[in-house]
Amino acid sequence: MSAAALREPWTRLSRQREAATFGMWVFLTSELLFFSGMILIYAACRYLQPAGFLAAARETNVWFGTINTMVLLTSSFAMAVAAQAGDAKLRRLAIACLAATVALGLAFLTIKGFEYREDIHEHLLPGAGFAIATPGAQLFFSVYWVMTGVHAIHLSIGIALVGRLILETARRELPLSSPEIQATALYWHLVDVIWIILYPLLYLGGRS
Asked: Does the N terminus or the C terminus of the chain have fewer Cβ atoms within 10 A?
């Protein structure tokens, strides 16, 4: 099984794992730099328009944000268990946890869709007819829509990657010892960590 997991040009699975992990960390570092730029823009805009940012943050739905935070944390736990089950050659458990990860990811996107619908209904989409008159509020929601939208795109990519793992593992086309599972788990955890950073920035401001 270990030999089946090997890919060229590697001759040892341990080296392949190290290379896959290193490559994924390089990619994740670039993603962190990308999101760090957006967070820096958020910080600068909040510094320039503190009243507007606090007034706008109070209008975000903290219940949707909190529920989605719990959903993603649970999905991260399921993904971690799937990776460990793969190392332990527990195929059924690995597939079940991967499926739970996908289900929780889809649940997050569904909840976010309901939240977006409420935001649009409440006229919180920047532009004509925006509901909050405080200067800077539209700027907050511009950042809000960009940050959450980009995060949703990354999560959708993660769902597709985990879904591929499920299909290939169920068909026994992908060995449980494959480094692809660990690399995908790292990507999924990054998406969760980014949301944990976005949650207090976008939902908890002005509520203390």
From this structure: C
Q: Which residue has the higher pLDDT, 18 or 176?
A: 176
Of 79, 95, 82, nearest in space to 192 by CA: 79
Residue 29 phi/psi, 5° resolution? Answer: -60, -40
Alpha helices by DSSP H, listed for 122-178, are 137-170
Is pTM beyond 0.85? Reply is yes
Q: Is residue 208 part of a domain?
A: no
In this predicted structure, what is the pLDDT of residue 9? 54
Domain coverage including residue 97: 9-203
Residue linked to tokens 């649009």: 120
Judge whether 59 lies within some domain. yes
Calculate the alpha carbon distances from 172 to 6, 98, 167, 168 in Å.
14, 15, 8, 6
Buried b (16+ CB within 10 A) or exposed e, 126-143: eeeeeebeeebbbbbbbb
Domain of 93: which CATH number? 1.20.120.80
